[in-house]
Automatic annotation (TrEMBL), chain A:
Residue stretches making up the PX domain: 1-143
One GO CC term on file: endosome
Listed name of the protein: PX domain-containing protein
Gene name tied to this protein: SNX6
Keyword terms, alphabetized: Coiled coil, Protein transport, Transport
Organism of derivation: Oreochromis aureus
SUPFAM superfamilies: BAR/IMD domain-like (SSF103657), PX domain (SSF64268)
From TrEMBL, chain B:
Native organism: Haplochromis burtoni
Spans traversing the lipid bilayer: none
Bias (Polar residues) ranges: 98-121, 211-229
UniProt name for this protein: Sorting nexin-2
Main localization (coarse): other
Family designation: Belongs to the sorting nexin family.
GO molecular function: phosphatidylinositol binding
Length: 376, 687
């Protein structure tokens, strides 16, 4: 049994410290329950160690969590501080609360994404036994991983270029297996679609948030109008302002929930489908290697030179390819099951939340209209 | 139209109310809808009477001194005029059907001539003084010298004020005192009567004519004089009163107490008189129909502005203005005319020229937008241009609605002409780059400069407060408008983004190889598609109900301060008109002061020949000072009234608009719930 969660997180200036809490009955851990403090870079290190491990070539490597991005939120907070003089006190506190809420939301999201990564690894039948993973979970000192330096980054970049060029070459190879052929076309299409949908949903949600912000500002503006004196109309405005204040909260919640249930889901599957694509690439690569080895063997046999060497490499490639194919098939089936389950869960939750919020809104509007009409 | 229904009825004064109530009992036909309306109108009469009754003893004495005796009679007369009209209107009301003139004549005749043997006790009661009036008025009129039109006009206006605006009891009372205090009081009464005279001549159908007929001599003597005397303003003032008539009485007529009518139509004859005085052919028509309301009289104007445009680059937008009315002042019940945007501006120019100086708030039309128009002309199918067109159409419609809702403006012949006449003379001055426009710009600039230099020490706290209120409201509304506009922008963005997400979701659904999930995703896409529609509708509602309402108010508020630079429009504001009037008064005063000094000097220098001249000048300036002061007070009163009217309208409109807006929101939420509810089982069906 291995249970991993992030029990706590701390934001310090430009980095976030996650407290990774583990409960386990596995014998290679010294204790049953322990916690360590980890940073984002260490998560990346773990992920990269999976990717680089040849042993795991046949698995979908759980996608690394995205880098925590508080810059925008921080910047806004800073701007707010600068603009303090130009606002009324009410507006200021309102804005501040809003930004703080936004910051908190991003924070939570970041934590959740890191947690998802660990959970995926912990749930994976092979990866959970990884030594690096265990070290990551247990070693209570700083892992002293460093971020990649410029040279390494450049190397990575070239690797990626080569890989994608290679990917194009490899993709042209006709697969012998129908299952993989189908999966390949599917994933290629799917990945693009998910990418598109994710970007669009992000934009949709952003504009939803903007609209909610506008409603908020309208509410406070109406409030100012309403407090000017105590005429009938002012009372009316106050009432409407109150309503808007509430509806904007709901609108903001809707946006946040859509973000959580829809955009994050799509984003996760964007990365996961990328990981699956990578798996297929590795398999195709292995296939190409295998075919090349076959050709080399044929050549060697024809020339009757280095036959043994060619045979060994051919067998190696064959073995590698078969191993990848075998685990990849299961991985891809698992991926599909996981995907369907996740979409089901999130879409149901999304629909329920949308309904809840819409009903809340409806009730508010009805109540308010009742009052307003009663007054006129 | 239901303006009067919102007025808080002042405490019911004594006798007159009794009468009124009696009448109410007598005529048992009513509907509750008009109850309050009725109530307020009753008060109008009531207040009026109460004031006159009270004034007889105290106020009058101060003002008139020796003239008290004569005045007394006149007061009664003034009183009676109201009554008389009441009477008349009752008759009108009584004659429900496409009034056979015979009937009308009979009914009216009976009360006027017969004092007792009438079927309607109230009428007879009222008729009593009416007779008095007519017998008294002529001598009074003859005795009086024709006074300046100005004063006359002033009186009339205040008198009608009282009818029109019962809300403000105090300010209303004040002017009335002066009304009665004026030596010309009976003159004004006579004028009214005279109005009946020519009326009768031209329209034998007129009921009032019966009454007038009893004093033919008066009519003939005063008539020419009056005609000359009546100024444009006069007409307006009368119109102001008539408003009540056209807005209230229609309702009354149909469903309501006969009693409500008495006070409301009281001024009926006045506009008739006014319009008669001016050579306005339609006026006659108005009068006649006014007094002959037909059965379907619903008393309000409905207006649709439909848009269609010409062809080519020279195309202009023409608007179809359809009016549906049961107001008898129009020839038909429904009519449609084609108007250009400049016609709307022209109407505004005319109205503001006429009514602005009196302190009326003339509703401003939407501003000219060369950019928007060019866009419409060039990029035909652009969404922003259709938006622009719809915005402008809506703004124009609301503008017209506001004009016809304004009691006095509705009575303006130009308004009627605008709504009714097939061909309107082209408004030249409104063209953006015409010479006239240029001149106007210069005028406005100089105006603005002079306004900035005028430092008016505001003695009236009410005005000061209002001014501040309006100013801060203006700011707030501007801010709100910007916010709502930004909401609209974001909502449109949201709609667009939702649409593109819907597409992506549909594509994702088609790419998905799990059947149930694929289905669910395409369902989601459909839901998002509908959401897009909702957002779009919401954005439209944001724009057309919410933002435009605010924009309208900004335009209106700007009406108070035309000198302020503003992107919405530049117009003559009522507060500024008041300021101008004040300035004139002050100038006259200082002039008088100078003259007096000169006189003193002359006296000291002992130059009797020049002294006489100086004295004359002083007298002249004294008259001017009083006149200007009165002008100022009149404008002040009008502004005050207008501001109150404006606020009332604003409140009502705002509430209505906001409620409509919220209802729209409510509907979209209901739709939303429907969509998601339909989606939920789909999501659950994913296996």
């Amino acid at each position: 049994m291995l249970q991993v969660d992030i029990s706590d997180a701390l934001s310090e200036r430009d980095k976030v410290k996650f407290t990774v809490h583990t409960k386990s009955t596995l014998p290679n851990f010294k204790q049953n329950e322990f916690s360590v403090v980890r940073q984002h870079e260490e998560f990346i290190w773990l992920h990269d160690s999976f990717v680089e491990n040849e042993e795991y070539a046949g698995y979908i490597i759980p996608p690394a969590p995205p880098r925590p991005d508080f810059d925008a939120s921080r910047e806004k907070l800073q701007k707010l501080g600068e603009g303090e003089g130009s606002m009324t006190k009410e507006e200021f506190t309102k804005m501040k609360q809003e930004l703080e809420a936004e910051y908190l939301a991003i924070f939570k999201k970041t934590v959740a994404m890191h947690e998802v990564f660990l959970c995926r690894v912990a749930a994976h039948p092979v990866l959970r036994k990884d030594l690096n993973f265990h070290v990551f979970l247990e070693y209570n000192q700083d892992l002293s991983v460093r971020g990649k330096n410029k040279k390494e980054k450049l190397e990575d970049f070239f690797k990626n270029v080569v890989k994608s060029a290679d990917g194009v070459l490899v993709a042209g190879v006709k697969d012998v297996d129908d299952f993989f052929e189908h999966e390949k076309t599917f994933l290629l299409e799917y990945h693009n679609r998910v990418k598109d949908a994710s970007a669009k949903s992000d934009r949709m949600i952003r504009s939803h948030k903007n609209a909610a912000d506008d409603i908020n500002r309208i509410a406070s503006s109406l409030y100012t109008l309403g407090t000017q004196d105590s005429t009938d109309l002012c009372k009316f405005f106050l009432k409407v302002s109150e309503l808007f204040e509430k509806t904007r909260k709901i609108e903001a919640r809707i946006a946040a929930d859509e973000d959580l249930k829809l955009a994050d889901l799509l984003k996760y599957y964007l990365r996961e489908s990328q990981a699956a694509k990578d798996l297929l690439y590795r398999r195709s690569r292995a296939l190409v290697d295998y075919e090349n080895a076959n050709k080399a063997l044929d050549k060697a046999r024809a020339k009757n030179r280095d036959v043994l060497q060619a045979e060994t490499s051919q067998q190696l490639c064959c073995h590698k390819f078969e191993k990848i194919s075998e685990s990849a098939k299961q991985e891809l089936i698992d991926f599909k099951t996981r995907r369907v389950a996740a979409f089901r869960k999130n879409l149901v939750e999304l629909a329920e939340l949308e309904l809840k919020h819409a009903k809340g809104n409806l009730q508010l509007l009805q109540g308010c209209l009742g009052i307003l009409k009663g007054n006129t | 139209m239901a303006t009067s229904s919102e007025r808080s009825p002042p405490p019911f004064p004594d006798s007159e109310d009794q009468d009124v109530l009696d009448a109410e009992e007598v005529r048992g036909r009513d509907s509750d809808e008009d109850e309050d309306l009725f109530g307020s109108t009753v008060c109008t009469g009531g207040v009026d009477l109460a004031v006159s009754a009270a004034t007889k003893s105290d106020d009058f004495v101060d003002i008139l001194g020796s003239e008290t005796g004569a005045q007394r009679g006149e007061v009664v007369k003034a009183d009676v005029t109201v009554e008389a009209t009441i009477d008349r209107s009752e008759v009108t009301a009584g004659v429900t059907d496409p009034l056979s003139q015979q009937e009308a004549k009979q009914t009216s005749t009976t009360p006027v001539i017969d004092l007792s043997g009438d079927s309607q006790p109230v009428t007879s009661k009222i008729a009593d003084p009416l007779v008095d009036l007519f017998s008294d008025a002529p001598p009074a009129a003859e005795a009086k010298k024709p006074s300046s039109a100005n004063i006359d006009l002033f009186d009339d206006e205040e008198g009608s004020d009282i009818f029109a605006e019962p809300l403000q009891t105090k300010p209303a009372k004040q002017p009335q005192k002066s009304l009665f205090g004026e030596p010309d009081e009976d003159k004004s009464v006579t004028t009214k009567v005279t109005a009946g005279g020519p009326l009768q001549d031209s329209k034998p159908a007129d009921i009032f004519s019966q009454a007038a007929a009893s004093t033919p001599s008066v009519t003939s003597t005063v008539n020419p004089k009056t005609n000359g005397v009546h100024s444009e303003e006069d007409g307006d003032i009368f119109a102001e009163a008539t408003v009540e008539l056209s807005l209230d009485s229609p309702r009354n007529e149909r469903k309501k107490e006969a009693t409500a009518k008495p006070s409301a139509p009281a001024p009926t004859s006045l506009p008739a008189a006014a319009s008669l005085a001016k050579p306005q052919p339609p006026a006659l028509e108005e009068v006649s129909s006014d007094l002959n309301p037909d059965k379907d009289f619903r008393g309000h104007l409905m207006m649709y502005v439909l848009f269609f445009s010409g062809d080519g680059m020279n195309a202009y937008m023409a608007y179809k203005v359809s009016t549906q009315t049961t107001l008898p002042m129009f020839r038909n019940k429904t009519f449609t005319v084609r108007r250009r945007f400049s016609d709307f501006l022209g109407l505004y120019e005319k109205l503001s020229e006429k009514h602005g100086p009196n302190g009326f708030i003339v509703p401003p039309p939407p501003e000219k937008s060369l950019l928007g128009m060019t866009k419409v002309k060039v990029g035909k199918e652009d969404s922003s241009s259709t938006d622009f067109v719809e915005r402008r159409r809506g703004a124009l419609e609301r503008y017209l609605q506001r004009v016809v809702n304004h009691p006095s403006l509705l009575q303006d012949p130009d308004v009627r002409e605008f709504l009714e006449r097939e061909e309107l003379p082209r408004a030249v001055s409104t063209q953006a780059l015409s010479g006239a426009g240029f001149l106007k710009m210069i005028n406005k600039a100089t105006d603005a400069v002079s306004k900035m230099t005028i430092k008016m020490n505001e003695s009236d706290v009410w005005f000061e407060e209002k001014l501040q209120e309006v100013e801060s409201a203006d700011q707030q509304f501007r801010k709100l408008h910007a916010l709502v506009e930004s909401l609209v922008v974001h909502r449109k963005e949201l709609s667009l983004n939702t649409a593109s997400f819907a597409k992506s979701a549909a594509m994702l659904g088609s790419a998905e190889d799990n059947t149930a999930l694929s289905r669910a995703l395409s369902q989601l896409a459909e839901v998002e598609d509908k959401m897009e529609q909702l957002h779009q509708e919401q954005a439209a509602s944001d724009t057309f109900t919410f933002a435009e309402m605010i924009a309208d108010y900004i335009r209106l508020l700007v009406g108070f301060f035309p000198h302020r630079k503003c992107e919405f429009c530049d117009l003559q504001g009522s507060f500024d008109h008041r300021m101008k009037a004040w300035q004139r008064w002050q100038d006259a005063q200082s002039m008088l002061q100078k003259k007096r000094e000169t006189e003193a000097k002359l006296l000291w220098a002992n130059k009797p020949d020049k002294l006489q001249l100086a004295k004359e000048e002083i007298a002249e300036w004294e008259a001017k000072v009083t006149q200007y002061e009165r002008d100022f007070e009149r404008v002040s009163a009008t502004v005050r009234k207008e501001v109150i009217r404006f606020e009332r309208e604003k409140t009502k409109n705002c509430k209505r608009q906001v409620i409509t807006y919220l209802e729209c929101l409510l509907q979209s939420q209901q739709q939303l719930i429907k969509y998601w509810e339909a989606f939920l089982p789909e999501a659950k069906a994913i296996a």
